[in-house]
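REVIEWER CHECKLIST
Item 1: Sequence provided? yes
Item 2: Single chain? yes
Item 3: Sequence as submitted:
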Amino acid sequence: MADDFQQHRQRRKLPSPLGIFRWLGRFLARSAMIVAGLLLLVVALASVLYLNRVRLLNQTLSLLVEPFRVSVGEIDFYPIGIIRIEDLELAPKQSPPGTRLVLIPETIITYRVSDLRATGRLQDITLRQAEIRLDARLREALRDREMPTTEAKTPFYLSSLGLFTGALVVEQGRLIVSLPDLPRLEGTWELETGRFETDAEGFIRAPFTLALSRISIGEKGEGGKIKTLTTKARLTDDLETLEIGPIRLEGLDLNVTPAMLGKAKIGTGQGADPPRSYPDKTAYPSGRLLRFSGIEVVDAAIDLSGFDGAEGRARLPDLAFETNFTLPEIVHESGRWDSKGPIAIDLSKIEAGAGGKLPFFSATKLELRAKSLAGLVEERRIESIALTDADLIASDESFARFLRSPGDPTDSPQSAAADISRPRPWTLDHVKLDSCGIVVRELSIGGKRIPEVTASLSGELNDLRLGGGTGFASEGRQTLLIEQLRLRPPGASDSTEPLLRVARSEIALRWPDFQRENRIERLHLRGPEIEFTDAALGEWLKVAPSSPEVVPPVNRPVYQVEQLEATGGRLVADSSFATGRVPKIRADFSLETLAKTAGNHEAHRLRLEDLSLRNHLQKTQFFGPPRPRPPFPEAAQASVGTSLGEDEVIRVDDIEIDFTAIGLQRSHRIDRVKVDGAVLTVGDGLKSIARVEEAAKVDLPAAGTPSATTEHPRQAAAAGGRMMPSWTLGEVELTRSRVHFESLIPQAEGLQFAIETRLEEVPLSLEGILAQDKLQKIELAGIEIRDPYNSFITVAELPTIFVEFSLAGLARQRIETIDLIAPSLHVGQGLFWWVDYQRKYRARNEGASVGIDAGVAAEKKPDWVIRRINATAGKIIISPTGVPVGVVPFPFNATTTMSEGNIELKLTIPDEDHVYRFPDYKVELEGLTGDVQFNVPVKDLDNNLVQTFKLKRAKWRDYDAEDLYVTVTFDAEGIYGRFGGAAYTGYSEGQFNFYLNDPGKWDAWIAGTNLDTGPVTKILVPDSFLMDGKVSLKLISEGRDKQVGETTGEFRTTTPGWFDITKLDRLLEKLPSEWNSLQNSFAELSLIALKRFDYDKGTGSLYFLKREGSLKLHFAGKDGTRALNLQVHKEPTTQDNAATGSEKGETPATDKPLPEASARPARPDRLAGDRPPR
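Item 4: Structure as written out by the authors:
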C-alpha cells in the first residue's frame, strides 16, 4: 500500500498553499454555520424535552420494558447528579385497568457526569417504600403468553442489568401477596445489591441482602406472623447457580387452618403418594445449583388445626409446637436435595389433639437427627429421635378424627393396595424415649372396649422401619422401661385398686424373634401387684362364656421369655368371678428363670410366699347362748376382723412352682410344685369351695336354644367353665405341712396332723384328686375341744389319735378310721353348751346356701363321714361347772361312726373286778358296769347324756348296798340321777339333782322299805342309840357344795322291835357321889325306864338346818308309849367355819373360773317319781 501511495503522489500534481487556505476558510465558515444551527436546535429541543420530560419518559420506559405498563408521576433532574422519580407504577399490559404490580413512591438515582459519559452507567439507585402487590389477576397476566418458536433463545446474563456502578437499594418496601391458593402475606421488605460485576468464578461480585419483617399471614394476621427473615444471596451471571445464606428466620408464629388456606388442600389421605424416583447426579453434569449456606430458625411457633377431614379436607391432628434449630449448608442440584452436614431439628412444647378439650399427645421436647438431607428426603432415614416428657392419651374421643368407620374410603381395597405400593419405608435408626406417659382410657378397637392403661415409658428403640409393603419391621434390639403401670378393665372405677399394677418393668426383645418365634429376650418386673376383685374386674366380671362348640387351636402360639424375673409381687383375689370358683387368695410372689430343660425350653419358677386362701363369705347366722363378756374388751375388739362364715382354707409359707412356657400355654402342665409349711384347714371353708365347684358344672342349653329363665351373668360364666382345660402336675412335694380339721367334729379346735408326701402326675382337677385313693395313716397328739362360749372350759381331751385316710377320701369328705387312745370326756356345762350350739346351728342352717348369693336355696350336700371311730381306755370326768369334781373318772370303750355330721356314741364301761374309791366322799364302788349313750348333735329335743351303771356293791361311810343301779342324766342345766338297790334286808331308792345354772346347788331324796334298823343305828349313832326292827323311811335334803342345808325326813315301823338309848349308860355311870341311895335308886329307875323300850309300832320325823336339828320319835308298846324330842347340834370345825363364810356371800376360791349361765328354776318332777319294780 505504501508503494502504491507513493506512485499515486508521483502521478498527481500537488496543490498550492493558497488553495489550501481557501479550502480551510470555506470549511470553517460552513462549520460555524452548522454548529450555530445545531446549538440553536439543541437549545430548542432541550427546552421542549424538559417541558415534556414525564410524557417522554413514560413512552421511553414503555418501549424498554415492553411486557409491562409503566407510568411515572414526576421526574426531577435537579440538582445535577441526582434524578428523583416519583410514583413509579408497573403493571403487566394484560392486567385489567386499575391494577398494578409495583408502586414506588420515590426513586432516587445518583450519577457522576464523568462516569455516565465514560461508561454510560449510573451510580446508585434507591427505591423508597416500594410496594409489590400480587393477586390472582396479576398472576394471570404475568403468565408466559409467547407463541411456540423454533428459534433459540438469547442467553440472559445478569451483568446486562449492570446500569449502575454503586448499589441498588430498596428501603421500607411493602409486599402484599393475595392469591386464592395461598394464604395472604403482607409485610415490609428491604433489598440491597452491589455492582453487577462477575468474579473469576462467574458470581456477581457483591451479594444480595434481603430482609423481610413484620410479615402477617392470612386475613388480619389470623394465620400468624413472622418477625424477621434476613438472608444474603449470590448469583452467577448466567443464573445457573444461586447461593443463599445464611437464612435467619426469627419470631415465626404460624397458625395453619383450612380457612387460612382457602381452597388449598393438604392431601386427604385418600390413596398413597405416587411413586417418586430420584435421578442420579451423574445424569445432570451441568444442572442448576441452589445452595443454602445455612438456615437458622429462632423462636418459631407453629399451630395446625381444623383439618378434621370434613368437606374433603385433610384429616390431620391439631398440632402445635415451638422450635429453634440451625441447619447446615443445603444444596439442591440436578433435582436432588442434600446437605453438607447432619440435620438437627429440635421441637419443644409439642401438643397434638383432635379438637377435644385435652391433647392426645404432648411432649416437652423432641430432638430429630439425620445424617444428611438426602438421607432424610430420599432414603427416608432418620438417624435418631429423642422424645422427652411426652404424654399420650388414647381414647375414642381423642382419636375420633382418625378412627375409621364402615364406608370410609381409606378402607377400600384400592387404598390398601396403594399403601402397599409405597416404594420405601421410613427408617428410624434410633429412638430414645425419656419419661413418656401413656394413658389409654375408653378406647374401642374392633367394637370392643379395651382396658384402661396408664404407664410411664422410657427406653431405646433401634432400626425401626415404618410403612412400605411390610408395615413395620426391625432387626435391632429394643429395650423399654415401663414404670407405674396401671391396668383397669372397662367399667372399673378409678377409686378402686387397679387389676394390675407394676412399679417397674424392663423388657428387651428383637422384633424378628418376637414375630417369628414369639420370643422375648428379657422381662424383669419389680413390684407387680394383681388385685383380682369385683371392683377391679369391672365389665370383665360379666363376660359372656364362649360357645362349647368352639375348639381352641391345637398349635396355639407360645410366648417365651429367655430371662424372666419378678420381685416384690403381691396377689389379691377376692371376686365372685366364675360364680365364686376363684377363692379368696392373698400371697406374695416372685419369678425367676431356671436352666433350660432337656427339650431346650425355657424353664421358670414361680415362688408364692405367705399364701392365704379363703372361701367367700357365707350367709350364716349365729345361734346359741349369749357369749360371756370378754375379760379384756380391748383384746376382744382387736380380734374382730374376719367376716362371719369366711374361713381360711390354706395357709402356706412357701410354694415353688416350676413350669415351662410351652407346658403352661399349650399342654397345661406344671412340672413341679413344692409346698413347704402349709396348713390345710378342712372345714366349712373347703366345703364351700367344693360346693361352688360342683355347682359350676351345670350344663349349658343346646346351641340356639333359649334359656327358660333369665340367666345370671355369674351363672353363665360358671356354665362356660366346663370348657376350661384340665391341668396336670408332674410332681407334687409337701414338706412341713399340716392338715387342720375345723369342722370334722363341730367346735373342735386344734385337730391337726403333719403330712409330708410326694406325688407324681397329679391331675389338677377334682377328678384327678379323686383318683388318689392310696391310704395314709398319721398320728395326732394333744387335741383339746373347748366350750364354744368359754375357752377356759374343756369339753374333751384326745391325747393320742390315729387317722387313716386318702386324698380322694378327703375330697369326698370321708375318713376311713379314727382310733382314739385314752380320750377324756368332761361331762358338765361346757359339753352341753357345745352340743346345744351344734344342734341349734344345724337346725337353722341345714341346707342353707354357703355360696356368695344370699337367698338362693342350695341342694343338701353330704357331710363328713367317718367309717369307723374306736375309743379305747377312755375316761368320763364329772365336771358340772367346767372344773372336775373330786370323783374318780369312769372308764369307757366305744366303737361308732359319723355320718352327715352326727356321731352316735355308746360308751361301754367294761366289767372289771375293780373297786373305785372316792376318799373325799368316803364312797367305794365295786363291780361297776354300764353304758353311756350320747349323740352329736342330738336328734331329739333333749340335749342330754344318759349313763346307766350297775354295781355289785356300794359303800358310803359304813353304809352298804348291793346290786345297785344308777342312772345319771346330764344336760346343759344340771345333772340328774336316780338309783336303787337292796340294802339292809330291804330295798332303797332315791334321786339327786345338781344344778349347773346355780353352781353348787343340789337337792336329793332317798326312800327305804323294810330296812333293818339294827345295822343302820350301829353305823349312824353307835354310841348313842340302838334300834332293832324294820322301818320304811323317806328323807329329803338340799344344800350347796359339801354343806348340807335344810333336811327333813319321816319314818314308820313295819315290824315290832325295840330301841335302847345307849348314851344314858354313861350318864348312869356318872351320877353324883354326894347323892344318897334313895336319890341314886330313883335316878337309875327313871333312866332305865327311859333308856329301853319295846314297841309294837312307831313313827318319827327329822328336821335339820345348818348345824342344828331336832328328832321327834313316838313309840307305842305293851308297856305304854314313849315320846322323845332330841335336839342335835354339831360343834363347829374349820371346814364348817369355811362353809359358814360361804353362806355369808363369800365365794370360795377355785383353780378355774366358773362359766356364766342364765338361771333356770328347778323342775319339780326331778324330786318325784315312782320306784321302779325290783
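Item 5: Key structural point noted by reviewer: The chain is about 15% helix and 45% strand.
Item 6: Recommendation: ____
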